[in-house]
Amino acid sequence: MFTQVPQPLVYAEALLAQFASLSRSADGAALLGDFVRGLAELSGCELTQLYLLDATHTCLGMNAECLNGILQPREAASLPADYNGEQLLQFALCQNRVVCLSELSGSLHETSFLPPQAMPWQSLLCVPLVNQQKAVEGLLLCASRRHIDLQGFADSLGQLGSFVLGQLHLLQRLRQPTGDARPAKVSVPSASGYGLIGKSSAMRQTYSLISKVLHSPYTVLLRGETGTGKEVFAGAIHECGPRRSQAFIVQNCAAFPENLLESELFGYRKGAFTGADRDRAGLFDAANGGTLLLDEIGDMPLSLQAKLLRVLQEGEIRPLGSNDTHKIDVRIIAATHRDLSVLVSEGKFREDLYYRLAQFPIELPALRQREGDILDLARHFADKACSFLQRDAVCWSDAALDHLSGYAFPGNVRELKGLVERAVLLCEGGELLAEHFSLRMEVMPEDSSGLNLRERLEQVERSLLLDCLRKNDGNQTLAARELGLPRRTLLYRLGRLNINLGDFDG
């Protein structure tokens, strides 16, 4: 680990000293500040930063920064910051890969996340930080004005960062009040059925299907509306199965164009294309022995579908630019919110691949079909949000619970999670109230006696159209297909009811 750093023995001793020092931190903020200062000492860089994901895992915020040996103050108004446009940070975060650049000033990479200095930044190291569950929770960043190779620091600093994450979670748990000081809860949501939350009849049926396939090698196809938690269910199948000690990797098939998706999945050999200056293993190799979730499989290009079929049938892959194949042992789980049988009939999905993937289909229930689970999930998300924000747990008012119970949740569990986390942020006291939740209620007027039949039917039709558009992320073609309407007819009805894209949050 230390062969690529100057003075390995001295560095190893300094690293051990940092582990010992950080283990004695009794405050979360002090822990993070000491961590970035330690990074600067170990790497010799003028700038070190720590980024952590928020409770929704959709926003990356800078939590600590050390510049020229001085810990920079955090300005609450500027945090959290959305770094979605920063390709370097997002690449390291989403791909769980180390980024190391030693010619930063002469590159075309966007580096607006680095503080402006008189001398340009020349070297950069960005290392993903993973928790005990092997999930990425943040990034550490080191930058220097000198041309230096920081790659040798990546492994050791990454382990130090993961240790800090564990310490931070421990401090958060210790900070939670105990005894009578903790607000009383109506009930405590418990994880049941492979670590998943839900005791409804629909969920019990799903648990039964998971139990049938858990220890089998069969390919699983997870089907369900957007937001039903397909990745969570896939993770549960992996964590409770015989491959739990190996990698669990997720790839969204709609996130990359065809040529990039192929190289991501299968890897490539040096010289396979312009810019391929070295061999690189793909996700099939990375997931060898473990599980690979192919999310949004319905959006996979036809040419790649043929190659995926070969992987499923033969258990072997051929990287781009190679004439040789090699065996892999990967469990494939596919997921989609689209009807693959319809795509097959339209010639957009291979029939042979469909039947191979649908070896064991599991239909995930929508949240509106999970009677009684909404409140358990809401309490769970609230507790998680409070823990992440390092604040005391909140209790629920009856009005807030009734408010949630009466909502259909077209965005399913994902929508519920976002609403609860937002409510926790808005809650300044210790109790969640109905006004903390902004639900997109499409309700009938209390007094509809003045409406004729046509007007009442239009209200019902408007509600159905909006729900269908939300479920399909605003895709009018998919919505029309689900409703059994020609797209032109759907557009006509949308215009007649004065529905536009701003009427829903796809």
- CATH C-level class of the largest domain: Alpha Beta
CATH architecture of the largest domain: 2-Layer Sandwich
CATH fold descriptor of the largest domain: Beta-Lactamase
Extract low-pLDDT stretches.
Answer: 179-192, 442-447
Give the percentage of residues in beta strands.
5-15%
Structural class, from helix and strand content? alpha/beta
Strand order of the largest sheet: 3-2-1-6-5-4
Name of the CATH homologous superfamily of the largest domain:
GAF domain
User: Which of globular, elongated, flat, extended, rod-shaped describes the shape?
Assistant: globular
**Rg result:** 25 Å
Average pLDDT metric: 83
DSSP summary, beta strand count: 17
Taken together, the total number of domains comes to 4
Helix tally equals 17
Query: Which percent bin holds the helix content?
Result: 25-40%
Largest sheet: 6 strands, antiparallel
Helix-strand layout with pairing:
Layout: H1 8-23, H2 28-43, E1 47-53, E2 60-67, E3 70-71, H3 87-95, E4 99-101, E5 123-130, E6 136-144, H4 154-175, E7 191-192, E8 196-197, H5 201-213, E9 220-223, H6 230-239, E10 248-252, H7 258-266, H8 283-286, E11 291-295, H9 302-314, E12 316-317, E13 326-327, E14 331-336, H10 340-345, H11 351-357, E15 360-363, H12 373-388, E16 395-396, H13 398-405, H14 412-426, E17 431-432, H15 453-471, H16 476-483, H17 487-496
Parallel strand pairs: 9-14, 9-15, 10-11, 11-14, 16-17
Antiparallel strand pairs: 1-2, 1-6, 2-3, 4-5, 5-6, 7-8, 12-13
